[in-house]
Fold:
Amino acid sequence: MTTAFTVDPWDPGYTAAIHLEALAELDATSAQLDLDVELPAAAWRPIAPDPATPPPEVLLIADGVRRIDARVWTSAPGDGGPMPGIAASCAAGIVRCVPGIPAEPVAVEVSRSLFSASPDATDIVTAAGGYRARRAPRSGMDDLVLALQSHLAQLEVDLAIRHRAESDEDDLLLVDGPLRGRTHLPRTVGYIKTHHTAYLPAPQAATVSQLRPGERTPVFLMGTSWRRHAWYVRLPAPAGMPWAGVVRCEASADLHLDALVRLADSVTHALPPLAGVGYKDPRAPQSLVPIGGLERLLRHRLGDARVLYRALRAAAARQERTAPRPPVPVR
Structure:
């Protein structure tokens, strides 16, 4: 049975500007903290990473981009009427960074999907490519975009696992965004560029404001709907704003203290040389140069949004012309 669908004429960008990581952070307003992991909470101070702990020999950075190509309505006989959905493209990639060598992308994968809560939704085939039907838990726009974001996060994880399986390098994987759903990956750190919640109490937050470029806070443990270790790092940034150039790093809650401190020091050594610059990226310095380059490549791989939108409209029109019409009752 083929799913009938129509394409909403509005530009999908009007409802696609939803920052899912921001939503997750805003929900986590009652985090339970253990501030005594590395230093007693009363003794917090900026920490310069141990010079004897080197940065990782190979740093892999995983990132992804997504785009809603069209809002659609899906329907099938007997399913209760049309249901909203989104036809979306997303791309995941990995860039390999070695000190002294230009960063290079080593893996890219593009996926196009139809997200709908309809149990009868089927793949959409267009002249510009196919959209695989994927089930969303509910039909609200937020639910559809969350399903898209979850698919993209899984795409990044699968790509990283495959790349590492094909390589014998002793690498560290940096994932752009919180570590949620990726804590099982070995040698992996989450990288959060923006801050939506003041997690630390005032005395410890003051330590963040005191950081100089290349310094970090002590490691602490935080728990919301999931647990992870975290620390803040300051990247090179113009002076003047208390949290300018500050990023948060996250690591598995299962790491022992010695390994955790080595990891935090190693990452703190690695990040400042990769910091973005303002004339190239308005999100600098938090948007690392390799991340900015990878995102540009991934957006290019998504294809022309106008071409895909027209292809979806044409596929919908073609389907409408060829769909069997219900019999006319005989009077």
